[in-house]
């Protein structure tokens, strides 16, 4: 009985410790997934992630530490921070501080995931945002050699012309300074097809958040839904194989798992197993 159990567990243990890839890229993790444990004990949490084969991180908070302290913890474990997420206000008004922290962390990308707004996203706000994105991206690229990315959150897909206001943002930002991070759930939620959008804009998308939406949940333009609607990849509504095929063609540079639900320890492992078996 014990021998049989060991035979079952050994492949699982090996899976947990071996770094996994999708489309030739390491599967990373968004720090927000482990936000509670990172706040309490970052060292122990990073050990847990490393033991799961996660070595690439996107930090969207420093969790009360300095950038150098976080970098030291990562270096000690042979891990890296490839993307640093900040709020729009800091990206716009504290660009130098953001750039300096990102460089200390070793990141190549700076990411913003929300445009402050009240009510529906409007053309006027999209116009203002495009100008601000160009300003932020130009400063980060020219002074710090960092690539600025905007992470879509669903509300940007309000209809505009023959497309959406997200189309407006992409088409009115300078590709030399502004790129995008696709969150596949927040692309699907407002009624868009992530694969189609990847095919449309190609390598304007540099980064990707991997997450799936619970079956039966109806989307909208709010940019919000219960965190408990996050489910393991392949068990929800999104066509993951189709998206991954389009992502490979678009040459996405970093893939990050994100699961905001209370089930994240189990579901992120399930997601990694699903991706490892994806053909």
**What structural class should be given to the helix and strand makeup?**
alpha/beta
Order of helices and strands: HEEHHEHEHHEHEEEHEHHEEEHEH
CA radius of gyration: 19 Å
- Gross geometry: globular
The largest beta-sheet arranges its strands as: 2-3-4-5-6-9-10-13
Number of structurally distinct domains: 1
Instruction: Provide the residue-averaged pLDDT.
Output: 94
So what's the oligomer here?
single chain
CATH architecture: Alpha-Beta Barrel
The profile of the biggest β sheet is: 8 strands, parallel, barrel
Helix content: 40-55%
CATH domain class: Alpha Beta
CATH topology label: TIM Barrel
Number of strands: 13
Assess the beta-strand content as a share of residues.
Answer: 15-25%
Poorly predicted runs: 1-16
What is the number of helices? Answer: 12
What are the key terms here?
single chain, 279 residues, alpha/beta, TIM Barrel, eight-stranded parallel β-barrel, 12 helices, IolE/XylAMocC-like, Xyl_isomerase-like_TIM-brl, Xylose isomerase-like TIM barrel domain-containing protein, signal
